[in-house]
Amino acid sequence: xxxxxxxxxxxxxxxxxxxxxxxxxxxxxxxxxxxxxxxxxxxxxxxxxxxxxxxxxxxxxxxxxxxxxxxxxxxxxxxxxxxxxxxxxxxxxxxxxxxxxxxxxxxxxxxxxxxxxxxxxxxxxxxxxxxxxxxxxxxxxxxxxxxxxxxxxxxxxxxxxxxxxxxxxxxxxxxxxxxxxxxxxxxxxxxxxxxxxxxxxxxxxxxxxxxxxxxxxxxxxxxxxxxxxxxxxxxxxxxxxxxxxxxxxxxxxxxxxxxxxxxxxxxxxxxxxxxxxxxxxxxxxxxxxxxxxxxxxxxxxxxxxxxxxxxxxxxxxxxxxxxxxxxxxxxxxxxxxxxxxxxxxxxxxxxxxxxxxxx
Length: 359
Fold this sequence. Notes:
Blueprint: E1 9-12, H1 45-51, H2 54-58, E2 62-65, H3 78-88, E3 93-98, H4 105-115, E4 119-124, H5 132-135, H6 141-153, E5 158-163, H7 172-182, E6 186-190, E7 205-209, E8 215-220, H8 230-241, H9 244-250, H10 256-260, E9 262-265, E10 271-272, H11 275-278, H12 294-300, H13 309-312, H14 314-319, H15 322-329, H16 341-347, H17 353-356
Parallel strand pairs: 1-2, 1-9, 2-3, 3-4, 4-5, 5-6
Antiparallel strand pairs: 7-8, 9-10
Helix pairs in contact: 3-4, 4-6
């Protein structure tokens, strides 16, 4: 797929912890009980020093924290990890996606200093004071506003990403105006792909629950002008191929992360090609998470421990051949014959809900 020497971007999930309980996040069950297959792993500064040697950091162009399950701002060593990368590469781009609902103003000011002009925070804020918490359950607006204000006032470069739902679509323009007033460099109204499920079915809404399992909001699709264009592509692709599974069998794959020389590191320290492949590991609705196809590739590499860069180093993970096997699978005749389905789902050329969020 690519070599250790070709990696230019690290996507780092440094924690599975989060103070929020978003109903469409795999960390929890519709916003309720914790995913039973995760253990709230978190990478320390020392872990990152073992995974990322200074000479490796020197070859990078970008490191960003986002991930599948947690939010970097609740991790203990986030700031120190960014400092470590900056120490060994003054020119690389540093970035972080966050719900912004934690840490002190002083912490945000210090982060702005570490990033300087070569970095940015992407604030994932889906509404204003009266709506953000409807999807971002557990996130307190006053904390969000304080974080954004402190970071920008300290010279930080910031982008506001706004997922559009029915309950907040009336605030898109108002939020964009606020972003300009506050000094954001960019405002992105995202046409969420979350209404195409992990099993590739369309849905009109998603019922949220709280951590007691009680129903809270019903998260509904926005009006047509704010809907992800892949929802229209979905019908055409299904009509052309008969079923979505038939499309995934035939999909021509153009790997997004290979183009970028991108590598994903999970909060357990596992090295995987991308967040999407890693994201199939722990689906909460499976009694046995290993029924997902990605485990065939992990097991063929020697098992989860073998792809643990925290234990064995990054170079050793490349030597397992897991990345080559994944790329080779793209030429298989079907998923049943070994083509990795998640690659068809996320990087198939005819259907791209992720990319369509930004159109």
